[in-house]
Write a structure and sequence with these properties.
39% helix, 5-stranded antiparallel sheet, 164 residues, elongated, transmembrane helix, membrane, transmembrane
Length: 164
């Protein structure tokens, strides 16, 4: 069943296939700040960009250097935001306010509240297999066309240290 039939929105980004293993392909996506394309970004140092690597299921037609579009259901992204940011914030605030009434020193209550994140993220790490099963990236080939059709200048694969 197609994602459009469910009425779900999807988030998609263009990327370049960096490597292909047996069942997994690494796709590098250029993440740019809003002012990364500005001509004076060198002077103000506000423009940043980073390359993020996403592992997708290799469908047999992917090859290194291929330009692709990687898509993900928007609701899956919101689940990631909730698990990674919202729930930990709620946990820290709840523990902090609960302990501030019991523990006489605020510093100790704050330290325990922050330390409560260790078991939380250990639990998230323990369930990483579950999260890997619910997160499904879709990959489709992109017609590279001209630079104007792509909506900007192309980007190049940036290798991380220690990789070939």
């Amino acid at each position: 069943m197609d994602i459009k039939e469910w009425g779900c929105r999807e988030v998609s980004r263009q990327g370049v296939v960096a490597a292909v293993q047996d069942t997994v392909a690494d796709v590098e996506i250029l993440q740019r700040s809003a002012c990364a394309g500005c001509h004076v970004k060198v002077l103000c140092a506000a423009g940043e960009s980073a390359v993020k690597t996403v592992q997708v299921a290799h469908q047999g037609n992917l090859r290194p250097g291929m330009t692709v579009r990687v898509s993900l259901e928007e609701r899956i992204g919101w689940i990631g935001v909730a698990v990674g940011f919202v729930l930990p914030l709620v946990l820290v605030v709840t523990v902090l306010f609960s302990l501030s009434r019991v523990v006489p020193r605020e510093e100790l209550a704050g330290l325990v509240a922050v330390a409560s994140l260790v078991p939380y993220y250990a639990l998230v790490y323990a369930f990483r297999g579950f999260f890997a099963r619910i997160v499904h990236f879709r990959v489709s080939e992109v017609d590279t066309g001209t630079e104007e059709q792509r909506g900007g200048a192309p980007f190049h694969i940036v290798r991380k240290e220690g990789t070939s």
